[in-house]
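Quick note —
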Amino acid sequence: MTALQAVILGILQGTGEFLPISSSAHLALAPRLFGWQYQGLAYDVMLHLGTLLAVLVYFAKDWVNILRDGLARPRQKEGRLLWLLAAGSVPAGIGGLLLHELAETAFRDPRWIAFNLIFFSLFIYLADRKPAQISQESSFTLKDALLMGLAQTIALMPGASRSGMTIMAALFLGYSRPAAARLSFLLSAPVIFGAGLFEALKINPADLNAAFAAGVASSFLSGLAVIGLFLAWLRKRGLAPFLVYRALLGGIIFWLAAN
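Predicted structure written out below.
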């Protein structure tokens, strides 16, 4: 893999991780579209480490407060978020272990990806139309964490979108769009970290070269930019443009597969 290819994949990861368009779908489809050698799920997960770093940097002050309060006063309202995020990560962790083989094989079939892009867009659309009742993540409960965690598990199928599924769940639970996105981004950190550790064992040390570093760096920088831009977008607008993109991309994939 060349440095340019790695940078492009990194940008796809950094953009798709936080927008509800499925980074895993784009990482699976790009090598097929451009005729590149697919590097495998382990490489894709390692690119996620760039977006993990983006979440940690963008929400650095929040993470300091979450960790401090979670360890110092876990039973109080201010300290519960750390443990709720941990609880919400459990379903995806279990799902990842049970469905790992399918995630690397059958789920990456282009037609399956196209179906997921279109099918789940309908549910995200319905959630996006639901009136907001909760504006702050301070109202986050264990039930909310587990339901968002279950939704996050759906994203093991490329095309569903991790951010799309968790934002959808939060919107159905009554959160505002910005609050839903913030919870989605915070919830991504434990899962990405755990998956990264799991897949790191499969990475060939020879692949940890300049191209790999360029991919992680581009994932980090693009992810950092997209977090800020997307949160600003959601303060005034909805998810419709991203859902239209998902539907169009799914339709194009079906057309290419048929021809």
